[in-house]
Structures are given as C-alpha cells and as structure tokens.
Amino acid sequence: MARPQQHPPTPLQTPTPDVARVWFLTSGLSALSVRLTRELLEHGNLVVVALRPIDFDQEGDHELSREFRELIAECQTGKKLDEGWNDRLLCIHCEGRAIGQCGAAIAEAVHFFERIDILLCCTLEGVPISHFQQPRSYSCDDFLGDFRLTRFLFFSVAAVIGTVEELNQSDDTQNLVRDQFETTFFSQVNFIKATLPHLREKSKGHIIILSNTGGHFSYPGTSMFCAATRALEGYCDSLAYETAPFNIKVSIVQASQEVMFLTNKIKVSPQLPPGENGHNSMTGVREILTNILNSHPRTAINETMRKSGTIITRYPILSDEARSTLVMETIFALLAIGGHENPPVRHIVGHESCALVKEKLKNMSEELEDYVNVGSAVDVYHGDTAPSSLTRETPERNLEMGDYDSAA
C-alpha cells in the first residue's frame, strides 16, 4: 500500500481544560506518559500513575526510567514545587496483571484525591509474575527517596516482534505471546473492572484506551501485538454500550505504530532461516527496527546476536527532542478528548494514520461490494423482496442470486 504524502506538521497548542480533573494512568513510565503527566500538571490537573517495580540490576536499563526520575525531581524544585506539582502527583506500585493490586491502587487513588475522572489505559508492557509485589503509594518525596535506596527501575513491557512461526519455536517464544496478551489485554481489563464501580457510583467518568493503528491493519511480524490490540478494542466497543446508561464514556485513541514501537521496549524473536525461495516476509520490519537500534551503540544488534537464536530485548534510545516530536500529536489528542462531554468512540491520531485507515476502509468496502452477491446468496427471499442493492451486478463479476422460491 502506497504511503500518503506527508504534510508539514502544524504547531500544536495544548488545550486547556475548564476544570481540574483527576487522571489515572495505568503506566507512567513511557516517553508519552511522562510528557502527558507534565502537561496535565502544567494545567492544574491531578495525576495518579501506576508503576511496576523490578530490580534495577536484573534489567540493567537505566535509560528507561531516566525521564520519569527527572520529572519527579522537577516536581520538587523551584517553580514547580511552588505550583503544587509535588502534591498533585501520586505514584503507586501496581502490577496490572494482578486484579487485586488494581483494585487496591484504584482505592488508594480515590482515598488520596477523592475521585477519579479519567482512566487512561496506556500499558504496553509488564513484568514476570515472580516480580509481583504489594501495591504501595508514594508522594514525590517518598518516591525519589525510595528509588535511591532500593535502586528500583520502573518499566512497562514490550511489543513482541516475530512471525507466527517464529513465535512457535520454543517455550520462551510462546511465553512472549502469552505475555503480550497478559499485558496489552488482561492488565487493562483489570484496571477497567477495578475502576467501573467508582465511576458508576458517581455517574460520570471517561475511560480512554491508548491503542494504535494495529487495530485497523497489520504488518508482517506484528501478529501478536496487533491481535492483542484488537482484542482490547473489541472489548471496549462492547463496554461503551454497557457503560453509556451510567454516563461513562469510552474512547479508543489510535496512535501510530511508530509511537508504540519507538517509545517502549521491543522484544524480537529468533529469526527463522529463509524458505526455499529465499523469501523472508519479516525482513522489512527487522531491518527498520535494527537500523534504528544500531544508530546508538548501547542498543546495537550485531550479527552474532542476530544468529544466536535468543530473544533480543531493546529499548530504543532517541534524543529527547525526537521523542517529543514523536508523541506530541498523541498527547494533544488525549488532552483534547479527555473529559469531553461528547468524546469520539474512536479517534485516529495524525494525518498519515488517518489516510492509511481511510485507505484500508475503502479497500474493505470495495471488496465487500465485489462479493456482496456471493454473501447474500445464502439468504432466502420471497418473490421480489430482495434488497435492490444485493441484486445488482458488480463491475467485475456477473453473479446472480439463486431462486429459492421453490425451496421455500
């Protein structure tokens, strides 16, 4: 599919809410979450972020938590401290895949700020079950002090990259599939279920799902990532009908897949050798990601690593400016939609993503028209009751519906 021509970006002016709201972010560590938290605090909102602890020495990735620690330090100094950032940010240790911890985290947030207005489900990653700990809340002072003492690294989990066959090679690669669904789907469902009683009680609320365009189309090597994404979107499509009577809105915000892949950890499965014809459908995705990772010496993947047959885990290291440019459109959309009286059920972020989704929907519509007579041939109509739209000839095929009067 040809990529549409990209227009120069227009300057974004962050929308200012008319009233301070309480946001609960299911993950506060990603580049997008950190910048969104900063914007929310800048405009007087109250923010709760859920964080999953894992031992720093085991993961060994200082870069992943750097921006969040800088935000915490910023809240405690100078003008930000005078503006009350320190008092309007609450950090809670919580693993989303443990339903009990989600309930405890929501209860702690309501106790601290008295309510939750907006639940933003933005978790992409998780930690092994063995690292589950009891939820614990922190003010900014407590959090930074505890970080220095225990050397915790807070990280959210990876988008799994690998073909269907590559992800079926071993127990380790099959576990990647399970982890993808546990993190992308089940952890978000747990937060939603834990929050619904509170939102229903106050008859108002907004649940926002930070998704990606994988909900509309997929690329080779992203099967499990896109499958988990569509599972969550399907769940929320039904949820929107169920919560509407309680004045609880549900919105799905689809960011570009570049935002998801380049601001979170990536786990790449071992590569299978090319088939007999030498074709490898995964080459394009691997090459793109490998080129980006190889642009920094700390994340470079050499040939020995690629042929080692092991799962490769990396967190793309980009400049702060590059990360900001990558995520600001999505942040603008979240700020504009969050708490809106009549928010969209589904929102596509970015001109290029909108064009790609429109093209996909156009192709689906054309294919439906091509085969509409075949699909409707199974229906039983009496006399001339068949809809005219189902009896016309298509441009490419001359398919006539069968006459089922005698059978009836």
TrEMBL record:
The keyword Oxidoreductase applies. Keywords: Oxidoreductase. It comes from the Eukaryota. The keyword Transport does not apply. Residues 385-408 are annotated as: Disordered. Signal peptide: none annotated. One of its GO terms (molecular function) is oxidoreductase activity. Belongs to the short-chain dehydrogenases/reductases (SDR) family. This is Putative short chain dehydrogenase reductase family protein.
